[in-house]
Model the fold of this input.
Amino acid sequence: MRVVDIILKKRYGGTLTKEEIHEVIDGYVKGNVPDYQVSALLMAICFQGLNDEEKVNLTMEMLHSGEQVDLSSIDGICVDKHSTGGVGDKTSLAIGPILAACGLKIAKMSGRGLGHTGGTLDKLESIPGCSINVSSEDFFKQVKEVGVAIIGQTKNITPADKKLYALRDVTGTVDSIGLIASSIMSKKLASGAHFILIDVKVGDGAFMKDEDQARQLSKTMVKIGNSLGRKTVCVLTNMNEPLGNAVGNSLEVIEAIETLKGRGPKDFTNLVYDLCSKLLLMTGVCKADKDARILIKEKIENGEALEKLRQMIKYQGGNPDVVDDYSLFKKAKEVVPVLSEKAGYIKFEEALQIGVGAMMLGAGRENKEDDVDHSVGIVMNKKVGDYVKKGEPLAYLHTNGKGTKEAYDKVLNAFEIVDEVVEENKLILGVIE
Ligand code: URA
Done:
């Protein structure tokens, strides 16, 4: 089978067989098929698309390119929640402990942030001493005893995706529903959970800007997950403004802790309740949304969810006292208010620009090798629908000096202020089951 014939077949709209997909992907991982041929095939896929069978076959090929996590030794229901990436998205840090307090098991392998989107691992590392490099043995022990562990990848999971994603990034071929769906789902399937909830971010700060496309992507992922025996649900959520108020590593951890104390920002708290409720219903722990919400509230109010976070931090070598004493986090040297130049209602906060502003301060990395400054970031003082007076702070920059001026301008320009009253953003745009 010649790779060039496979490329030509897709170029002219043909359907690739399982064997043809194997030939290219396996050959690529082993170094037998060069970048330029895979690039050409990826571009042909972007133009011609993949049908459902091709998407499943590609997902399976990527899944089997590496190791898979076997969670069968863990008693209880193992669930995974994944976000396609946004600004201020600290959801896993709140959801994990709440679900563990509700009796579910969360064995989660997360990623680092790149560009304007943050990563859960960087947030966890802002907790003094907290490690995300945990051995497989300790990872399983923690999930069994605490119910929740969030760590970096312990195994060689989906190497095909790692190679393909890097190539897609530089060949203009990220933006294809079939390629994105198989990339995300192969990783989720390899992580072993039987119930998968995917938070598909839509809007300015997400990689899916368009709701119809996000809906199509969600349908594809649900179909792939369910066809391979994993109950999968996608929730489409608004990413036109940052989630919650805090953007930046330790600032976001503090906001997640506050949420576990029942004092989180309204939009973030609502999303945490919505996603937890979905997983409690999917797994059959609760029979109705109303019951799920009562259970979540109880676990927050009686402190059990917060206790799970304390235990998780302690197991991962961190100082659990941070939960009660925020001064233990590294603080930025200066807090600079971004002042509104006019009065009016906030119509739009460009989440992307806020994410880029936080990155300029050092909270994120432009290149994989960059270090992040855990103490810096942005705290929103006004959200969509709020009224702001001239000279009032729109947001606060927590800065150590790097990029302050550029970040100030970015954040100021991210706000559109109008005279007429504006409604709050709708957070949940749809659920694909
Ligand atoms: N996230 C992934 O893991 N893969 C993609 O292709 C896009 C976003």
Remarks:
- The mean pLDDT is 94.
- Residues 84, 165, 174, 179-180, 183-184 surround uracil (CB under 6 Å).
- The domain at 78-323 is CATH 3.40.1030.10 (Pyrimidine Nucleoside Phosphorylase; Chain A, domain 2).
- The radius of gyration is 22 Å.
